[in-house]
Write a structure and sequence with these properties.
By secondary structure, this protein is α/β, with parallel strands linked by helices. The protein has 2 domains: 237 residues, Aldolase class I (TIM Barrel, Alpha-Beta Barrel), CATH 3.20.20; 70 residues, Arc Repressor Mutant, subunit A (Orthogonal Bundle). It contains 11 helices and 11 strands. An 8-stranded mixed β-sheet has the order 1-2-3-4-5-6-7-8, covered by helices on one side. The chain has a 3-stranded antiparallel β-sheet with strand order 9-11-10. The C terminus is likely disordered. The structure holds iron/sulfur cluster (SF4). Iron/sulfur cluster binds next to loops.
């Protein structure tokens, strides 16, 4: 069956198998014009013009769920920013009425998160993923190129407020672009702001599809080196979409433990970083209980300091 507003299912290691809803089918409509956007460059807009009706989306979703019952999550997205959809709240209520136990996820650029009505609507999702590529206005303007009425301070305060009311999984995503948001100044600013946002998970990724503008991606090792500069208490996850290079790093047992003490990693991160012999040492340390597992934002992380952190929190 073909659909205008439904796509997938698409397997994703971060969220499982996802059925997507596109609220701007066929045309990019976004209030940002990010340098790294995988859609073609386009002038930012205030709202989605000629959107599909709530009836059309709900009808297609109902049929698609019957056709693809083996999915994990329904993902609301757009060729652009889904919260610009004019009947956003009504649509979510319709999706909730027909989702039949499936989890719901929205991918938003966070530009409207300071609006109480949007916060209320987003709170109906099981998981909310918000982009936060920059911690300073200069970087934000250069990298995400938003409409002039979008203000980074309002976004950050909006995320803070949203976290206070939202009980579901809040995931932040930072897409790293060499020389723009990878500078010491930007990471320092992130380290001041991110601990106040209390996200369940913070995904750090890089460009892995042809971008709208000529920019440089980072390789996995550089991404990992940047991840190490973030506050170790943050739930950072290195979200490289493809394993692009063979792992060649050999670590001794003590090096494995000190790496995971600084930064908990997912299994895929670990397999991308460690060579075969190091993986055997990792498995041994895990079996000995020197490495622990913890669930965060739908992923399993491996680290060494979880119980210490817990003890600290409760003391
Ligand atoms: S927010 Fe997303 S859709 Fe909009 S320009 Fe940026 S990457 Fe593209």
């Amino acid at each position: 069956m073909t659909y205008r507003t439904i796509f997938g299912p698409i397997p994703s290691r971060r969220f499982g198998t996802s059925l997507g809803i596109d609220l701007s089918p066929g045309k990019k409509q976004c209030n940002y014009d990010c340098l790294y956007c995988e859609l073609a460059a386009a002038k930012p807009v205030e709202s989605i013009e000629n959107p599909p009706s709530v009836e059309e989306v709900a009808g297609e979703l109902k049929r698609a769920l019957t056709e693809h019952p083996d999915i994990d999550v329904i993902t609301v997205t757009a060729n652009g920013e889904p919260t610009l959809y004019p009947c956003f709240d009504e649509l979510i209520d319709r999706i909730d009425a027909i989702k039949n136990g499936y989890k719901t996820l929205i991918l938003s650029n966070a530009s409207t998160i300071d609006r109480p009505d949007i916060q209320k609507s987003l709170a109906k999702f099981d998981m909310v993923k918000l982009s936060l590529d920059c911690a300073t206005p200069q970087c934000f303007k250069k990298l995400d190129r938003p409409l002039s009425n979008v203000d980074l301070e309002c976004i950050i305060e909006g995320i803070r407020q949203f976290r206070r009311l939202y009980k579901g999984g809040l995931i932040l995503e930072i897409l790293m672009v060499k020389g723009i948001n990878t500078t010491e100044k930007e990471i320092d600013a992130f380290n001041r702001i991110l601990p106040t946002l209390h996200a369940d998970r913070i995904d750090i990724g890089t460009v892995d599809r042809p971008p709208a503008y000529p920019i440089e991606p980072l390789d996995y090792r550089s991404l990992h080196a940047i991840a190490e500069k973030f506050d170790p208490k943050l739930p950072i996850h290195i979200a490289a979409r493809h394993k692009t290079e063979e792992a060649q790093n050999s670590f001794s047992e003590s090096e494995i433990l000190s790496t995971l003490a600084k930064r908990p990693l997912t299994k895929v991160d670990i397999e991308t970083l460690f060579d075969t012999e190091t993986m055997k040492r990792f498995e041994k340390l895990l079996a000995e209980g020197k490495i622990e597992k913890k669930e965060a934002g739908n992923l399993t992380f491996y680290g060494t300091a979880f119980s210490k952190q817990k003890a600290k929190k409760s003391s």
